[in-house]
Write a structure and sequence with these properties.
Blueprint lengths: L9 H11 L2 H8 L3 H8 L7 H7 L1
Length: 56
């Protein structure tokens, strides 16, 4: 059985808003498109270990 794991990123989203004002500002600072970040926060695309390392 191959189950997809879904994460609740609401706390992360809140922290991003707190630190950067908007998801768009965060995505620009991180160097990724808003669409990419949105897809990651909405469980459409996974965060990679590299993503986590870059944003730490």
């Amino acid at each position: 059985m191959n189950e997809e794991i879904s994460f609740d990123y609401s706390s992360l989203r809140g922290k991003i808003i707190e630190q950067f004002g908007t998801i768009k500002n965060f995505s620009e600072k991180w160097g990724h498109s808003y669409n990419t970040v949105s897809r990651k926060l909405n469980n459409k695309v996974s965060f990679s270990l590299q993503d986590i390392k870059e944003t730490s």
